[in-house]
Design a protein that fits this description.
The complex is a heterodimer of chains A (about 110) and B (about 110).
Chain A: E1 5-7, E2 10-13, E3 19-24, E4 31-37, E5 44-50, E6 53-57, E7 64-68, E8 74-78, E9 87-94, E10 103-104, E11 108-112
Parallel strand pairs in A: 2-11
Antiparallel strand pairs in A: 1-3, 3-8, 4-5, 4-9, 5-6, 7-8, 9-10, 9-11
Chain B: E1 3-6, E2 10-14, E3 19-21, E4 23-26, E5 32-38, E6 45-50, E7 56-58, E8 64-68, E9 73-78, E10 87-94, E11 101-102, E12 106-111
Parallel strand pairs in B: 2-12
Antiparallel strand pairs in B: 1-4, 3-9, 5-6, 5-10, 7-8, 8-9, 10-11, 10-12
The chains are: A mainly beta (about 110), B mainly beta (about 110).
């Protein structure tokens, strides 16, 4: 186990709805990143938070947004869900610095119908 | 654009066969390199990482990888695979703590 926990594990939503996914980072880790893993693909970077500020974003539209809290836990929010948003959403936590490794949670499987 | 390429989409081996999975990246400058493994139903786990120094890196479960800077490659190897190595393998790259860029992954199936 990595110490990174995500909730819920599975979720089914209807197109157009909004969803919030949650992540608790490993103890002491102040950086959280979110990734989307579509079926048969590698994880794709959505955004990263460091000390409650977004400090990097991948090629995802603004309807993907996030938060990081003072305890370094994080949320990923997706508005106006589309069928293509169906994927495994992964949270990873790490320490800041140029040479760190990321620890991943088990992910949230989101299905949009 | 920065990218990571994994050459093999699906590899099928018998137990005790040797394994080599290719990974190439397109980045300028200093990079950190990683191999992650995803066993069925489990989270991504780090197999090994390269930050600097000896380009031959040893990881968990008998895996190793070699960084060849001139070829922008970081291939994963294991001399003798086991059935339990059946999983999906991802090569990933980043620079100075930025987000990881992953390859599309290689599915390894090992038959006993």
């Amino acid at each position: 186990e990595t110490g990174v926990t995500q909730s819920p594990t599975h979720l089914i939503k209807t197109r157009g709805q909004q969803v919030t996914l949650r992540c608790s980072s490993q103890s002491g880790h102040n950086t959280v990143s979110w990734y989307q893993q579509a079926l048969g693909q590698g994880p794709q970077f959505i955004f990263q938070y460091y000390r409650e500020e977004e400090n990097g974003r991948g090629n995802f539209p603004p309807r993907f947004s996030g938060l990081q809290f003072p305890n370094y836990s994080s949320e990923l929010n997706v508005n106006a869900l589309e069928l293509d948003d169906s994927a495994l959403y992964l949270c990873a936590s790490s320490l800041e610095g140029p040479r760190t490794e990321a620890f991943f949670g088990q992910g949230t499987r989101l299905t949009v119908v | 654009a920065q990218s990571v390429s994994q050459h093999n989409h699906h590899v099928i081996l018998s137990e005790a066969a040797s394994l080599e999975l290719g990974c190439n990246y397109s980045y300028g400058g200093t990079v950190n390199l990683f191999w992650y493994v995803q066993y069925p139903g489990q989270h991504l786990q780090l197999l090994l990482k390269y930050f600097s120094g000896d380009p031959l890196v040893k990881g968990i479960k008998g895996f190793e990888a070699e960084f060849i800077k001139s070829k922008f490659s970081f291939n994963l190897r294991k001399p003798s695979v086991q059935w339990s190595d059946t999983a999906e393998y991802f090569c990933a790259v980043n620079q100075a703590g930025t987000a990881l860029i992953f390859g599309k992954g290689t599915t390894l199936s090992v038959s006993s």
